[in-house]
Structure prediction request, 427 residues.
Amino acid sequence: MKIVLVGNGGREHAIAWRLRRSPAVTSVVCPNGNPGIARVADVPRVDLKSMEDWASFAAREKAALVVVGPEAPLAEGLADACAAKGLKVFGPSKAAARLEASKAFAKDVMQAAGIPTARSDSFQDYDKALDFARGLGLPVVVKADGLAAGKGVAICTTEEELLQALAENLKDARFGESSRSVLVEEFLVGEEASILAFCDGANVYPMIPSQDHKRALDGDAGPNTGGMGTYAPAPVVTEEILAAAFGTVLRPAVDEMARRGTPYVGVLYAGLMIDGGGVKVLEFNCRFGDPETQVVLPLLDGDLGEIMMACCDGSLPGARIGVRPDHAACVVLASGGYPGRYETGKVILGLDDCETDSSVVFHAGTVAGEEGAVLTAGGRVLGLTAWAATLQAAVDEAYRMAEVVTFQDAHFRRDIAHRALGGTTRR
Ligand code: AMP
Ligand code: GLY
Prediction:
């Protein structure tokens, strides 16, 4: 089958890379894909703006399946536009994507389904929000209701930060329409982990649990980023925690969406806080995580194309899905200054000499330069990914690649997987 893949970052490179290893897949077309994606897919340069443009493109390509990487097109209704043309889509409808696109909606679903999560309420009124936040006490969390490219969450440890976070959203509309309403939430303690699950509208199949490193600097210091590295499996997710996540989070969420007449198809991403054997949901995302996908897909045992098709056909229980017994690690090479201001257009060196049978460089923010050169083009540039029989070996291999692949002002964390490896900074 032919697949049209929507998206152009590290997550999409990992998806395309894995789909190319799928016997069921004959070709992958990823419009405007980056130079890494170009190694495993056709990347035609096309100007696609509206969801209608994308759906028409996929129809012209006679795609057997459209796979959507990022949340924005899902929230805008790409799956609906494709379905209207009779295309199969791996990704939720606009109505189901609200699980990520509106935090108030996600909380409503969690409440209705009895899913454990932090205490919270939604507000459009500044004074009421402030009252509620003061009632919860510091630290307290303020979240823009809508999509904010990972920047909409403020952990307020002082009254000043609280006033600022509320004003930024409810007075200054920092994230535009996404700031119209805020969620004020109790601060949770514990260790975070992500569980991504395949969903076919009725059935749920969790993939291997992983852990992201959201802060920019070693020791979880510095500002929040889109994710500086990941590893899987995350040992904090024990068998018991996984069972709890399935039984109290994933299963009820998918049941509740079906009950509402908006069945959930695609990847449901549960961001969890784990504390003393209990799980609570921090957030739902309506798609694969980035950079979680980079470590989850190399460990998937099964035919990704077939699994995605089974999700669209409501036949997930018939698909063969397993987990390889290995460990994987991904170290993100970012532009100096990210997540603040950074420069682009730096030549990336060493790309040709670093991959092995058990490692791959996923491209996130790259573009093709002159004469085969690859240039930096974003904050997160590359995901150096390796897998091995032990986590230590996978981490060592990813850091070996970081010694080979480089560009001016490249920045990476040196402590990826530190929680699983004993809490020490590696180098
Ligand atoms: P989110 O975009 O909702 O995942 O939030 C970004 C990050 O903020 C999470 O990965 C957590 O580290 C942190 N966070 C969000 N909500 C809470 C909470 N209620 N308590 C503590 N930390 C939180
Ligand atoms: N790595 C976090 C996310 O994809 O939302």
Summary: The domain at 191-323 is CATH 3.30.470.20 (D-amino Acid Aminotransferase; Chain A, domain 1). The mean pLDDT is 96. The CA atoms of residues 60 and 288 lie 26 Å apart. Residues 212, 227, 285, 289-290, 292 surround glycine (ligand 2) (CB under 6 Å).
